[in-house]
Write a structure and sequence with these properties.
Helix content is 42%, strand content 3%. It has 151 residues and is mostly helical. The protein has a two-stranded antiparallel ribbon.
Length: 151
């Protein structure tokens, strides 16, 4: 029943964010040949991914980057007040990677679109409320990975 499916979807959206299983990674695909269940390379790739997700979460929560002034990821943070400034309510990012579109319908959800949006939203949506936040390349990759893990 479509109504039952809708109610199940709605219940999932109310849950706290849980990182999704890793997306296919070229490094990991090369390791998919038959062999022992876990190789040192498997473990190293999993550690690198976990490290990127930890860094991405830290970038998201870092007051210097100001993400948490406008956004919330349920189970990770509550929206914080910005002293002396008008509070802007950005979208709830709890399940952002499970959405079909980003940026108010401007972009189809993909890793590339997410990265471009995080790198410079004003280029993609001039006059939009989300400011450009300077990020180092490693921070941008990690934040993109973290956002894409929120399903």
């Amino acid at each position: 029943e479509p109504l039952d499916e809708f109610h199940a979807w709605l219940a999932r959206q109310r849950r706290p964010a849980v990182p999704a299983p890793p997306e296919p990674d070229p490094e990991m695909e090369a390791l998919s040949e038959p062999g022992p269940e876990t190789t040192p390379a498997d473990s190293a790739a999993a550690r690198r991914r976990a490290d990127r997700l930890r860094l991405g979460r830290a970038v998201y929560l870092d007051p210097e980057h100001r993400c948490v002034e406008c956004h919330v990821v349920r189970g990770v943070n509550e929206r914080v007040e910005s002293p002396g400034e008008r509070q802007v309510d950005g979208p709830d990012l709890t399940h952002v990677a499970s959405r079909r579109i980003l940026a108010g319908g401007l972009l189809r959800t993909s890793r590339g679109a997410m990265s471009g949006w995080l790198a410079n939203p004003q280029v993609l949506k001039p006059g939009g409320l989300m400011p450009r936040i300077p990020l180092e390349p490693a921070e941008l990759k990690a934040l993109t990975d973290y956002m894409m893990s929120l399903r």
